[in-house]
Fold each of these.
Amino acid sequence: MKGTKLVEIKNISKIYHTLDGETRALDNISFDVNKGEIVTIVGPSGCGKSTILSIISGLMKPSSGEVFINGKKIEKPNKTIGYMFQSDHLFQWRTIMDNVLIGLEIQNKKNEENIKRVTRLLDTYGLEDFKHHFPNQLSGGMRQRVALIRTLAIEPELLLLDEPFSALDYQSRLAVSNDISGILKREQKTAIMVTHDIAEERWFKVLLL
Ligand SMILES: Nc1ncnc2c1ncn2[C@@H]1O[C@H](COP(=O)(O)OP(=O)(O)OP(=O)(O)O)[C@@H](O)[C@H]1O
């Protein structure tokens, strides 16, 4: 339900220790994300955007602070979180349909009902004629849409998007960012997206690090 808190980021700090010394990547960051909200984290290169996503996803531990999703503390990767990266990471030897089904296959949930749901997503978002094509037969923007549908296929409660448009040229980036925000809103998904491109920010609530 909209207005209900889904994610709570509480006083997160992260210090990386290397042979050259230490880097304070995040310093006491706190924010909440409500269900159905799409939040963008905007900031220059090196300000800690990827670090905060890795911590929210449970892939990395913070030096201090806590992340809660639905009131539950996140300490390791979790099936309720879907991750979409800069590059689409589609498997070139699998068709579009087989690519979007991969998460369900891994989770042993490739059943008739889920296949129907994924087919509906492909049909609704302009990929109905491309289900049996291979990724290299699609444009960069279409491939990003496929990558998003593959992430949605596992029905995550929260989507984390790490600069999902950065591999695209400027024109496609505007079109695809419009596209993706439309899909997320229509499917009533909650998402946190990081970007260094201020142009993408017009679609989302912005949080500057
Ligand atoms: N594994 C690591 N070991 C040491 N320092 C790191 C490590 N990962 C990131 N850092 C440092 O932490 C800071 C934040 O990095 P991070 O990748 O989170 O930033 P970012 O905002 O995502 O950058 P970009 O937009 O360039 O991807 C940077 O100064 C970076 O050099």
Amino acid sequence: MTTTGDEFDSALALAATGILRDFNQAGVILAADVHVASRLTTMLNEANESVALACALVARAVRAGSICLDLAEVRNEVGDDGDELSWPVLDEWLAALAASPLLAAPYPLRLEDARLYFDRYWREEEQVELDLRRRAAQPAPEVADEAALLAGLDRLFPGSSYDEQRTAAQTAARQWTTVLTGGPGTGKTTTVAGLLALLAEQAEIAGERRPWIALTAPTGKAAARLEEAVRRELSDRLSEQDTERLGDFHARTLHMLLGRRPDSSTRFRHDRENRLPHDIIVVDETSMVSLTMMARLLEAVRPEARLVLVGDPDQLASIEAGAVLADLVEGLVAGGHIKEAELRTSHRFGSEIGELALAVREDRPEDVLAVLRSSGERVHFVEEDDPREALRSALLPDVLAIRIAAEAGDPDAALAALDRHRLLCAHREGPWGVDHWNRTIERWITEETEDPLWDTWYVGRPVLVTANDYALGVYNGDVGVTIRRPDGSLRVCIDSSRGRLDFAPSRLGNIETLHAMTIHKAQGSQATEVTVLMPGEESRLLTRELFYTAVTRAQDRLRVVGNETSVRLAMGRRALRATGLRQRLTLEQQPSGLTLREARPNRYGPRGPVE
Ligand SMILES: Nc1ncnc2c1ncn2[C@@H]1O[C@H](COP(=O)(O)OP(=O)(O)OP(=O)(O)O)[C@@H](O)[C@H]1O
């Protein structure tokens, strides 16, 4: 137990007493968790310490991206830090909770089997479940002409190399909701483009108007990539007639599609009362969608609109709470609500990166190490104790290329150089973190150019936008470079989903230097070459999902800096989040006429009224 008497440690809640103090001092819960628990228990006159502890642990779980606290699992999950603590016995803990005023009106907490929720997430999870069940319970969409559908599938997905995609498109054509999954380069976008053409043809045969299509993704970068890939597919592979039928379309972020409201950051213009007008809605990079955003999207989709959720469930989950895509894959398919549409064969890499990604995904550590050490052209494993020199020679040419183009006032060349190489770290801070490597690379630039970078804004500074700025039209995840103009002034050129924009540096508020970026932030984007710094062995972020996400950011070449131990540790650990959506979706269908909440008894106590 790491008991510390440091009264200046901000993680310690000085006012905590009893069991909360013990858990806080052991480092299991933070001061913020203690405050949440103290407020709730004081407000509702709850004196039971185990209930207060449960509140603090829910707050802790949500901080780590979970939707709820699994009371049956939390002891295991805390690991060694919890060894000397007195944990409540599960049945007694659950009984204390069931009897607590915190689980009665106004229901700050909700209990679902052994899962404890804050009310907001419980409601969102329930809403997502109900909306998905309702969509799945409708009669399947009608096929206007069965023979034309089969002929269309053969035309759009010809030959045996398109077998998987043809089957996936056929499945999607026959259901309202489809979860289309696959790793990088498995042909998800190709399938989407073909499916859209197929549905447009069916609409034409049925004498309906051209379907109104929405392409969307959680970030601007991912939305732009989706639009570009679908357009490329249409122009390279599909006939003029198929392309014509689709008309024009643009991809937008989910926030933009749902319509931002100036008075709320969690509510949108389109909701249950004002549904989206589209007939087909395709969401790419669904693994990055949080539970809250999925709830907002599902309530806004018309029941008779098709929803195609595309993504890779093996990637890291959303930055905000939830693991929606993984839950949907398991819950919707296992619950018998929809048929699976899974793509497994990679068509892009055909090389070591694809092999490596598959071995990581399929949990084959020996194969992972074999590919890393195979000395192939595309994958390189840097196993040195001090990798700085290796990194310097790998990274500096591209960093200097950005700077030379920026000095010449050439944004195209600077942005192209920026997209050539990404240095990815697990953490923001520490010796393997983004901040450290941003500073190190800036020092290398100074050494190389003999030009000290005194100012925050310097020529060639690559930047990452970290928050949406609707007024400027730049979005979280957009990247840019600082360019010198002929008159000597600096401008920041941003490659936004709306095209190239440029600003005076002082106008940009939420910006970070982008010589290095976190793997979490790199989700939804790719670079020609990627260098991954494996975090230290003690890092809690070192998981298979983190490693897989990092590896799959590389289009052409990948360099992994680490050692065998870090690779094995990453492979052995999962970034699991506690959620209840897959359990909810796999429960048996309820008898008609009852709402789900009435129909399902709770083993551990009342659920509260149906609202
Ligand atoms: N059946 C196929 N046979 C040969 N090549 C294919 C096939 N399907 C797709 N491709 C090609 O493979 C590449 C990847 O396809 P696509 O972009 O559709 O995959 P993806 O799963 O959307 O990739 P990512 O999500 O990684 O961007 C493209 O160049 C595409 O033209």
